[in-house]
Design a protein that fits this description.
four-stranded antiparallel β-sheet; 4 strands; 39% helix
Length: 199
């Protein structure tokens, strides 16, 4: 599938076939390909929790307004951001870059983030958003459906998954085989949101 077709076909699927399996190989391809997404300073802030056990998924569903995709989808990925990733062995993010590039970027990385918690969070969330969109497009290419989710009690989910202190939940993505009850798309025309040169 080409990218344009994947974008056109992707929908926020609400109903999934609860009996559709997702093989370990499909999971691997899905996640490894999504991890090719760009991230700020190549930090790769994403920390993905693949919730496979039915018991915690049921508990998450209880704090997610009872949404069926939490338990019915073949996979439930909780996309979390490591807010301190920028200072965790930062040389590893640029290990394949030429030495002059490393010598320039590593001090800049520290300068950019240190003491700027909001900047670190904003950058991590942007990177997490790009990762998630990439994951959903890869899922579409693999013949799967997906649903990004933020309709849940973030604090409750954090407790259920034992979220580390320096992590923040961005959103969840359910992936599986949709049962095909999507309603027609409703998108604003370009003229309603595109401006040129200034507002």
């Amino acid at each position: 599938m080409d990218v344009i077709t994947a974008v056109q076909k992707r929908r926020a699927t609400k109903s999934f076939d609860p009996h559709h399996p997702l093989s370990p190989e499909t999971r691997r391809v899905l996640l490894e390909t999504a991890a090719l997404a760009p991230s700020a300073y190549n930090i790769q802030h994403w920390r993905i929790l693949d919730v496979q056990d039915p018991q915690p998924r049921s508990a998450i569903r209880e704090v997610a307004w009872g949404q069926a995709q939490v338990t019915d989808a073949s996979a439930l990925f909780t996309l979390c951001a490591d807010l301190k990733a920028w200072e965790e062995s930062p040389a590893r993010y640029w290990a394949t870059a030429p030495q002059p590039v490393q010598d320039f970027l590593l001090p800049k990385l520290d300068e950019y983030y240190r003491g700027k918690a909001q900047v670190a969070r904003d950058e991590a969330m942007r990177s997490l958003g790009i990762f998630g969109m990439t994951l959903m497009l890869v899922a579409q290419d693999l013949g799967l459906d997906s649903c990004p989710m933020d309709g849940f009690d973030f604090d409750a989910v954090a407790r259920l998954i034992h979220l580390p202190e320096d992590y923040a939940i961005g959103y969840m993505i359910a992936v599986g085989k949709g049962v095909g009850n999507d309603w027609p798309r409703n998108r604003l025309p370009v003229r309603d949101w595109l401006h040129t040169d200034h507002f």
